[in-house]
Amino acid sequence: MNKKIKHGVLLAGGDGTRLRPFTYYTSKHLLPVHNKPMIFYPLMNLILLGVENVCLIINPKHESTWNQLLSNLKLPININLVRQEKPEGIPEAFPLCEKLINYSDHYLALGDNILIGSGILDKFKNLGEINPKHSIILGYPVKNPQEFGVAELNKNGEVTSIVEKPLNTKSNLAVVGLYKFTSEVFEFFKRITKSDRGEFEIVDILKLYLEKKKLSILNINNATDYWLDTGNIDSIISATNFLSKLSESKVVDIANIEKLFVNK
Questions:
Q1: Distance between CA atoms of residues 52 and 143, nearest Å
Q2: What's the CA gap between 28 and 178, in Å, rounded?
Q3: I need a labelling partner for 114 at 20 to 30 A (CA). Which of 9, 56, 68, 239 fits?
Q4: What is the tens place of the pLDDT at every residue in 41-78?
Q5: Range of weakest confidence among 22-31, 80-89, 91-100
């Protein structure tokens, strides 16, 4: 019997320099995308994946704003705010949250990534249950793979390499903002060092899983599934327009966490 993954890590720290002047007074993850705060989208995905506890990593200067938002939500999960004094890459989440999530298997989501689609979360969860000792990543086809961490596959669809911003690659599969990690990741973190840009790189963690043949990928079908990066103004506008069209078509009301607001 596969054990349920009860913990999620949600990254919402950083300074949001690409979204100034708005991020002088609030977190970029609290800015609206369509009719909801950006953070609602990845948070709802963690809820749908079945987590019971979320370690939410934040910039300390926005702590009061986060507390105000969460105090007005009635959620079916526990959320612990974790202060990140200085952003030093995605893997920094592991030592920051290891005790709160009891060194256990967990999902990790990026706070500025929106993932929507036809059963994508069920497929992601199922792949993790089939491969309980593996890290699971999402591969999304992009036109500009040189701007992303890219997964290269063999003819059987297995990951052969993970390359950060490759100049030459036959793969167009960007590794995007939702991961499943095993408890082994806490030891892996101790083995990596900062890159030339002064940050810990998630690609280095994934390479360690790959070395042990413990890395699986779920390829997103871009005909029915969507990944939206909302890290700058143009992408927020684009995501808002797209989600607005979905809302107008009555297809689905995405990340409808506001139904869980406490009425006061």
A1: 36
A2: 18
A3: 68
A4: 999 999 999 999 999 999 999 999 999 999 888 888 99
A5: 22-31
Cα 201 from Cα 224, distance rounded (Å): 30
Q: What is the CA radius of gyration of the chain?
A: 18
C-alpha 48/C-alpha 29 separation (Å) is 19
Assess contact for 149 and 210: CB atoms under 8 A: no
- Cα–Cα distance for residue pair 125/181, rounded to 1 Å: 12
Place of tokens 């995605």: 90
Nearest to 219 by CA among 125, 145, 131, 123: 123
Residue 110, strand partner residues: 11
**Which residues make beta-bridge pairs with 138?**
176, 218
Interatomic CA distance for residues 160 and 151, integer angstroms:
8
Strands 135-141 and 226-229: unpaired
Joined together, the tokens standing for residue 124 give: 């992601």
- β-sheet bridge partners, residue 83: 58
Domain locations along the chain: 7-133+178-193+226-260
Q: What is the pLDDT of residue 2?
A: 60
Take residue 199 and report the two structure tokens written for it: 């940050």
Closest CA to 110 of 152, 157, 148: 148
pLDDT classification of 168: cutoffs 50, 70, 90:
confident
**φ, ψ at 61 (rounded to 5°):** -70, -15
Q: Tell me how far apart the alpha carbons of residues 35 and 46 are, in angstroms, rounded to a whole number.
A: 19
Q: CA–CA separation, 36 vs 192, rounded Å?
A: 36
CATH of domain 7-133+178-193+226-260: 3.90.550.10
Determine the Cα angle at 30 with ends 179 and 114, to 5°.
35
